[in-house]
Write a structure and sequence with these properties.
The protein is α/β, with parallel strands linked by helices. It folds into 2 domains: about 35-65 and about 325-480, Aspartate Aminotransferase, domain 1 (Alpha-Beta Complex), CATH 3.90.1150.10; about 70-320, Aspartate Aminotransferase, domain 2 (3-Layer(aba) Sandwich). Helices cover about 40% and strands about 10% of the residues. The protein has helices at about 35-45, 70-80, 90-100, 115-125, 140-145, 175-185, 210-220, 230-240, 250-260, 285-290, 295-300, 310-320, 325-345, 360-365, 375-385, 425-440, 460, 470-480, and strands at about 60, 105-110, 130-135, 150-155, 190-195, 225-230, 265-270, 280, 355-360, 390, 390-395, 415-420, 450-455, 465. It has a 7-stranded mixed beta sheet, sandwiched between helices. A 3-stranded antiparallel beta sheet has the order 9-12-11. α8 (about 230-240) crosses α13. The chain binds ligand F0G.
């Protein structure tokens, strides 16, 4: 009997190929601009890949947020949406889907992950309070600091090493957690937050064993435990495939176990559930009531929370499909395939391979570019120039300056090449690796960037930069020598 919960198709040739268990029935045309045009476009975009129009992008690997391929069942469900302002049947279906998924009792809808963070931070964070987390996410930190709180991080030292053997780099260092709790006192801790599939350190998972220990610690110290489940699908794959104790547990059992350990769970439905929305789940009535009234204030009535009802229907189905091993394996096995191709060409990448995307180590790729000139931002611009591929800077540019104006130098300088679920093919991944291989051979030509317009908060979204010197023109000339068509 074949086991549909395992990757059990082995190629006779011995090749390691990420075999798809789906077929594409609707496609989107993409176009590849030549390198001269790409230089023009990236200059207009202020060397910020967020500001590129998608029409000028060949492969959009900016994010997996809201851009995963949806299933036919999700599209079909959208037709059933009930758009009543209050008491929509769609809400009750989604509520039931969330309850069945996490095993929790109450559900609050919100328009996306950061909206959940706004509600959580507004409800629980006060000036002077701390939030302890395995690692921060940009919008999470933004909401916590906006309320006057401070974020303290407790991943172990391996988490910040780009290459490592540690299969769960998102794990919490319990000694460090205890040190912070002893130092500040439990009454100063707004909550402890665990982020599944730790985004900013390379989509790295946290083990269920470690999650359980953190939950026990929080319980014994009367600390509220919050789970950011946005990247749970990837994390689930890694629990199932890397944690021996869970090899024979069903995905449904694993999610229920995780759900039972948390006081509050929130998620971006743009990632978890492959639709566009978000939500908060809890079994604690007091927490539910504390957050409930903020939903109509910030989001919309309690039965839609700012989401389109069609997306809510797609999310209900998407959550159920997250319990299908073939659905959740798609990103991790493609990340691994891309990572291995890049490694063959000497390109430094974060290991072990995580979820979300393949993370290129800019601090090694362009080790001659100082952190104050945003090496990861410069590399992301150079990748667009040489391939038309849009990645995302995850380094110093994604940090916020100190109040005195000095730079906060990021602990890692990464360019993320996100792999949205079921969107790209293996040949497209090979193209990415080919162009990055070329760029790696010409890496010394890459220079830094400097701001020409710098927003005060979340500057990476809308900031505009220019190259330091004329390195981009020189890089384009070198590219045309090797690729005379300019493509
Ligand atoms: N938490 C995590 C771990 C995330 O990765 C994100 C979004 C959010 C919260 C916020 O959710 O976008 O729905 O408001 N990450 C996206 C990304 C933006 O590209 O990694 P959102």
């Amino acid at each position: 009997m074949s086991d549909q919960t395992q990757n059990n198709v082995v190629f006779f040739s011995g090749e390691n190929v990420p075999l798809e268990m789906h077929k594409a029935r609707m496609v989107q045309r993409v176009r590849l601009l030549d390198v001269d045009k790409r230089l023009e476009v990236i200059t207009q975009a202020g060397n910020n890949t967020f500001l590129l129009p998608n029409r000028d992008v060949f492969l959009d690997m900016l994010t997996d947020s809201g851009v995963n391929a949806m299933s036919e069942a999700q599209y079909a469900a959208m037709m059933l949406a009930d758009d009543s302002y209050a008491g929509s049947e769609t809400f009750y279906r989604l509520e039931k889907s969330v309850q069945d998924f996490f095993g929790t009792e109450y559900f609050l809808p919100a328009h996306q992950g950061r909206a959940c963070e706004n509600i959580l931070a507004t409800a629980y964070v006060k000036p002077g309070l701390k939030v302890i987390t395995n690692y921060h996410f940009t919008t999470t930190k933004g909401h916590i600091t906006r309320q006057g709180g401070e974020v303290l991080e407790v991943v172990g030292p391996e988490a910040l090493k780009t290459t490592s053997q540690n299969l769960f780099k998102g794990d919490v260092d319990l000694d460090l957690l205890d040190q912070f709790v002893q130092k500040h006192g439990p009454e100063k801790i707004a909550f402890v937050r665990i982020e599944a599939g730790t985004n900013l350190i390379g989509g790295q998972p946290i083990s269920l064993a470690n999650t359980r220990r953190v939950a026990e610690y929080c319980k014994s110290h009367k600390l509220k435990l919050v789970y950011d489940a946005s990247l749970l699908a990837d994390n689930l794959y890694f629990i199932k495939t890397r944690e021996a104790a869970y090899k024979n547990k069903s995905l449904a059992e694993i999610v229920k176990e995780l759900g039972s350990l948390m006081d509050i769970i929130y998620f971006s439905g743009r990632k978890l559930g492959c639709a566009r929305g978000g939500g908060i789940a809890t079994s604690n009535k007091e927490d539910y009531l504390k957050m409930r009234d903020l939903v109509p204030l910030f989001e919309g009535f309690l039965t839609y929370g700012g989401m389109s009802v069609r997306e809510m229907e797609a999310m209900s189905v998407g959550l159920r499909e997250t319990l299908d091993f073939h659905v959740i394996s798609q990103t991790p096995i493609f990340v691994e395939a891309l990572g291995q191709e890049l490694q063959k060409k000497g390109v430094p990448v974060v290991t072990p391979f995580g979820g979300l995307g393949c993370h290129v180590d800019a601090s090694s790729f362009v080790d001659h570019v100082p952190q104050t000139q945003y090496p990861a931002g410069a590399l992301a611009a150079a990748i667009y120039l040489t391939s038309g591929v849009r990645g995302m800077e995850r380094g110093t540019l994604s940090e916020q300056r100190n109040p005195d104006g000095s730079e906060v130098l990021a602990q890692m300088e990464l360019v993320r090449l996100a792999v949205p679920k079921r969107v790209y093919t293996l040949s497209q991944m090979k193209y990415v690796a080919d162009r990055l291989g070329w760029l790696y051979q010409h890496r010394k030509m890459i220079g830094g960037l400097e701001f020409i317009e710098e927003p005060k908060t979340l500057r990476f979204f809308l900031g505009r930069l220019k190259p330091v010197g004329d390195w981009q023109e020189k890089l384009v000339a070198a590219f045309k020598k090797d690729m005379p068509t300019g493509l």
